[in-house]
């Protein structure tokens, strides 16, 4: 996936559902993507070509406590993407201390791992998806039923496959 396709695949401000606001995506390529990957330390960085992040907020949430964060990691091969997916899953499951409830997502990805968990502060949903050479990671906080993790994951997979086919998902 090219840097331009990664920039198109990460959810834009235009992709935010009605009643939600999107931030301007941040896209890093080459050595800048590698440096950020190593700084985060949660993913496998070998073969990483681009990294993109953004966040969408529920506009009706005055404290912006209902949101979803998106991260896309594009790799030079399926094998490197699989290694990153494995690292992301292991890292996220280690962080949840065994308190997570598995979540089944049917969104058309090559690999999927998702779960929910809750604490005194709220409810959280996490998903890692692999589509070809791209790994998508999403974290949702206090997501409403009409905009659950399934809907955001499906949107993300659609955007990745559309961008991979050479089309702009926002067109």
Give a brief outline of the structure.
With 171 residues, this protein is α+β, with helices and mostly antiparallel strands. Helices cover 30% and strands 33% of the residues.
Could you explain the architecture of this structure?
Strands 1, 2, 3, 4, 5, 6, 7 and 8 form an 8-stranded antiparallel sheet that branches. The protein has 171 residues and is α+β, with helices and mostly antiparallel strands. It has helices spanning 3-9, 30-40, 78-95, 149-164, and strands spanning 20-22, 26-29, 48-58, 67-75, 101-102, 111-119, 122-131, 134-141. Strand 5 (101-102) and strand 6 (111-119) form a beta hairpin. The protein contains 4 helices and 8 strands; from the N terminus they run αββαββαββββα. The mean pLDDT is 90. The protein is globular and about 40 Å long. The chain has a single domain (3-164), classed as Protein Transport Mog1p, Chain A.
Number of domains: 1
What is the string of helix and strand elements?
A: HEEHEEHEEEEH
CATH topology: Protein Transport Mog1p, Chain A
Q: Return Rg in Å.
A: 15 Å
Write the topology of this structure.
Layout: H1 3-9, E1 20-22, E2 26-29, H2 30-40, E3 48-58, E4 67-75, H3 78-95, E5 101-102, E6 111-119, E7 122-131, E8 134-141, H4 149-164
Antiparallel strand pairs: 1-3, 2-3, 3-4, 4-8, 5-6, 6-7, 7-8
Supply the key terms:
globular; 33% strand; Protein Transport Mog1p, Chain A; 30% helix; 171 residues; alpha+beta
